[in-house]
Amino acid sequence: MYSLIRKFLFSLDAEKAHQFSIQSLSLIGKLPFPLLSIPNNPTEVMGLKFKNPIGLAAGADKNGEAIDGFGKLGFGFIEVGTVTPVAQDGNSRPRQFRVLEAEGIINRNGFNNHGVDVLVENVKKSKYAGILGINIGKNAMTPIENSLDDYLICLRKVYEYADYITVNISSPNTKNLRSLQYGEALDDLLMNLKNEQAQLSQKFGKYRPLVLKIAPDLMEEEIASVADSLIRHSIDGVIAGNTTLSRESIVGLPYAEQQGGLSGKPLHHLSTRLIYTLAKELNERVPIIGSGGIHSLESGQEKIDAGASLLQVYSALIYQGPSLIQTLAQHIKLKRF
Length: 337
What we know:
TIM Barrel; three-stranded antiparallel beta sheet
């Protein structure tokens, strides 16, 4: 069935196909019955109980317009965003490219979204009963030295409505954003966000885990430094990782020269290396959400075996459809610590 849907979607421009999918899933979300079952493979991470460990990665539903629809595909958790304090158009089009031969996608969207207030209203309307993460970022117009202000605005606005909050400092499509992954800039950001988390926890009477999303392009010594910061600041989780700037795995293929972050199957080995190195440094003190290049049960299991406690999928959903989510959720073998 999905092969026919995919044929239609792939006849469209990549971004138009995405918009059509969001609109369709928004309608599907209104159905009074589930489209597919949510497989039961329970696990507890960050103090949260997940029905299964397979999640939707941020970027698929930036504005929370189709939460209920995605919830009917079998995911154990959903992450919406990245969202910024005010709406922004993102980078100019075209900005999404399918690398068909490699089952990859290049995007340079640039945090295009309707703003945090719109996202919150959509979340409030949702009937989704699973774990919901909200991914927050900074506006492109905000100077990098003022980034904390944007993250604090978003954190305060989404805190009451999220089960966890992800801080995205690793998109390659916002100028200088990845500089926040290093040294004093990272420490300052994490310290202030943790302080705000403590105040919000007291205000609302509930603790919402704080998660950091990092890039797969970090060197080993940089990963070690990030791990040290995560531990010292008691960050609740880390997503490893975002899209890559590397083109090593798609050299010579159509669109390989396009600027932006590469996701999908070509990212698998790089993101798995990140998880493995990060897991060694963290030594189970901070849970890892594995994201990037999962395209089969075997590739998902590799990420669990490398040290991930949860998994996130996006590009493979486009190429393979919901059946992969069902397979992963039912058959992935989790490590029980």
